[in-house]
Amino acid sequence: MAKPKLYVLDTGRMKMDKGFMVAMHKPASVLDPNTPAEFVEFPVYAVLIDHPEGKILFDTGCNPEGMGEQGRWPQGVQQLFPYYAAEECYLINRLEQLKVRPEDIRYVVASHLHLDHAGCLELFTNATIIVHETELANTMKTYAINKDMGAYVWADIDAWVKNGLNWHPIKPGEDEVPLAEGVKILNFGSGHAWGLLGLHVQLPGAGGIILASDAVYSAQNYGPPVKIPGIIYDSIGFVNTVERIKAYAARTHSQVWFGHDSEQFQQFIKSTEGYYE
């Protein structure tokens, strides 16, 4: 039987105030009452698992049509969270470089439905889209009543609805869900968003990898001590999830891949260079 291969797809960069990544990372004080904000750059990526039981995609990055005067993203969002990517970084092109078409994907695991993780879901009309039930329910409710959705983009969601995606929600009580041999969905619950999912991938050579997405933005958030991000729905849930991930990583001897850590991302083998197996 063929062995799974895991590819890291570099889908571009974004920038934002570092306070969104690590809350109160540099607070003002008597000695420095006007401490400046920092506008930092960070990676956006997806992961493709070429598995004998079917291809699995974890996250889909940003929509290439997000930015610009006629872009999908509201102007305020574009100014707070600008996205930069060469055409080669667009998800569909990264897949094409590996001779993979959207219709070849069996499962798409959406860690959550923010603009930088679910921006290209509309492409995967043949796949089963796996998402946290609470995340999907709240996103769709907000879509129905309000076009100003913060990190959720109305135009992206409109495209999902029009394309009739095949959703498979993971319920709050489903903590670990087997997806394929050596691949488990991890239910992180609420924290950074209404509901987040991760993956645990056990590879014959590389060993265990936890794809944490924004359940842990970066090594700074991971700690110790755990530091919550500025973009947060449930701060207690966030901290509890990080501790659960640490325990799971120790128990399974797994490395943890953060959602947007620039230093860690530099160390990854990218899909243009090779893969993990």
Can you give a write-up of this model?
It is a single chain. The chain has 277 residues and is of the alpha/beta class. The chain has one domain: Metallo-beta-lactamase, Chain A (4-Layer Sandwich), CATH 3.60.15. The chain contains 8 helices and 12 strands. The protein is globular. The mean pLDDT is 97.
CATH architecture: 4-Layer Sandwich
Instruction: Work out the helix count.
Output: 8
**CATH homologous superfamily caption:** Ribonuclease Z/Hydroxyacylglutathione hydrolase-like
Q: Say what the CATH topology is.
A: Metallo-beta-lactamase, Chain A
* Uncertain stretches of 5 or more adjacent residues: none
Q: Termini distance?
A: 14 Å
Residues in helix, %: 10-25%
Listing every helix as H and every strand as E from the N terminus to the C terminus, the arrangement reads EHEEHEHEEHHEEEEEHHEH
Side by side, the strands of the main sheet go 4-1-2-3-5-6-7
Q: Which whole number gives the mean pLDDT?
A: 97
> What is the highest CATH level, the class?
Alpha Beta
Strands, count: 12
Q: Nearest-angstrom radius of gyration?
A: 18 Å
The assigned structural class equals alpha/beta
User: What's the structural domain tally?
Assistant: 1
- Please state roughly what percent of the residues sit in beta strands, choosing from under 5%, 5-15%, 15-25%, 25-35%, 35-45% or over 45%: 25-35%
Tertiary shape: globular
Largest sheet report: 7 strands, mixed
Summarize the structure.
Helices cover 25% and strands 28% of the residues.
Write out key terms for the chains shown.
277 residues, alpha/beta, 7-stranded mixed β-sheet, 5-stranded mixed β-sheet, 12 strands
